[in-house]
Amino acid sequence: LDRMKSSFLPSLRDVAYYAVGYTTGSAFFCGTYMWTYSGAIPGIIVALGLPVALFYFALLMVIRSRKSVLVGRAGLFACGIGVGLFPMLGLWPIYMWRLPFALILFVIHIAILTAILFSVHFATRRMKATHAV
């Protein structure tokens, strides 16, 4: 059963869940980067990743407006962490390279975010089913 379709405009709580997730992922990336490279701060990498994070948040909101049960707040949080960790996986912001490389990275990003969304969706659905009894 599909519930009433939600609006494209996110609530402040939705923005907060995604922002906290992105901040958590980015902080873990920055800490690992600084530990690996003797204290070097990767601020430029995080700064270049911010427009990518905003793009994926807008994409998640479009998906949520179409299929509201798929993108919940737990999904926003988990996707925020995933986007924050993209640089750690070697998936730098996609606009830094030529188009063929950007398209390959975009497809990889979408595949990872899809896997995260479905994993969180099925995990939360299963938890709701066991607690409903």
Report on this structure.
- With 133 residues, the protein is mostly helical.
- The protein is built from four helices and no strands.
- The mean pLDDT is 84.
> Order of SSEs, N→C?
HHHH
Q: Summarize model confidence as the mean pLDDT.
A: 84
Q: How many DSSP helices?
A: 4
Biggest pleated-sheet summary: none
Whole-angstrom Rg:
16 Å
- Cα shape: globular
Distance between the first and last residues' Cα: 19 Å
- Please give the number of β-strands: 0
Q: Beta-strand level of the residues, as a percent range? A: under 5%
**Low-pLDDT runs:** none
Helix content bin? over 70%
SSE-based structural type: mainly alpha
List the helices and strands and how they pair.
Elements: H1 12-36, H2 43-66, H3 73-85, H4 99-131
Helix pairs in contact: 1-2, 1-3, 2-3, 3-4
Summary, kept brief:
This protein is mostly helical. The chain has helices at 12-36, 43-66, 73-85, 99-131.
Protein traits:
71% helix, mainly alpha, single chain, 133 residues, 4 helices
